[in-house]
Design a protein that fits this description.
This protein is mainly beta and 185 residues long. Helices cover 12% and strands 31% of the residues. It has a domain at 86-181: Tumour Suppressor Smad4 (Sandwich), CATH 2.60.200. It has helices at residues 16-27, 36-45; strands spanning 61-63, 69-71, 86-92, 100-105, 107-112, 119-120, 131-136, 139-144, 151-153, 156-157, 162-164, 169-172, 175-181. The strands form three sheets. A six-stranded antiparallel sheet has the order 4-3-13-12-9-10, with no helix packed on it.
């Protein structure tokens, strides 16, 4: 707003008090020391309940007693975020003659031709979300996700979940992979 105006052009309100407050605020120093307790309060109150914190690493987040997420001062080194433990690989020679490997980490990974899958393979006979591979309690569990062409383990079609062994051959669509566990049975 123009500092020479005395009334708001939109509503007609006297704006001289507003201009004075803005001038005083701009003259104040912004280098005011803030206590740690006040810093946490500022951080707590600066986010709404709808905010997501995907860009803040898990090791820098904590939940206050009010249920709001606050950012702590835990040292964080870029590129060293915590990832689930590496537990195995799927290796395939179907798509690339020299081989292709996919890291398997603790938790679950969807396998299919859709780019949103954790393991996305360009195979016309593979369903968008063909299968789910889960690593839990030191076991790999494979599940067919109602795929059109089925999921095969060692040339046998699976109807339900199956526990995989080291070096099992998994076929989805035209793609065949071999499971390699880092910590064999």
């Amino acid at each position: 707003m123009d500092p020479t105006w005395t009334k708001c052009a939109y509503c007609g309100t006297d704006v001289s008090a507003i201009n004075t407050t803005q001038e005083q605020a701009s003259k104040q120093s912004t280098d005011v020391p803030i206590s740690e307790a006040r810093r946490k309060t500022i951080v707590e109150n600066s986010f709404s309940d709808d905010d997501t914190f995907e860009d803040i690493p898990d090791n820098r987040r904590e939940v206050s007693q009010k249920g709001k997420t606050i950012v702590s001062n835990v040292p964080y080194i870029q590129g060293q975020e915590q990832r689930p433990k590496l537990v195995g690989f799927l290796v395939s020679f179907t798509q690339q003659i020299h081989g292709q490997s996919f890291e398997l980490r603790e938790g679950r990974v969807y396998i299919g031709k859709d780019p949103s899958c954790g393991i996305s393979i360009a195979d016309s006979e593979m369903s968008s979300e063909h299968g789910l591979l889960l690593y839990r309690r030191e076991k790999f569990i494979l599940e067919d996700r109602l795929s059109t062409n089925g999921t095969f383990v060692n040339d046998t079609e699976i109807d339900d979940k199956i526990i995989l062994n080291n070096y099992d051959r998994i076929r989805m669509g035209k793609t065949e992979c071999i499971l390699i566990k880092i910590k064999p049975d």
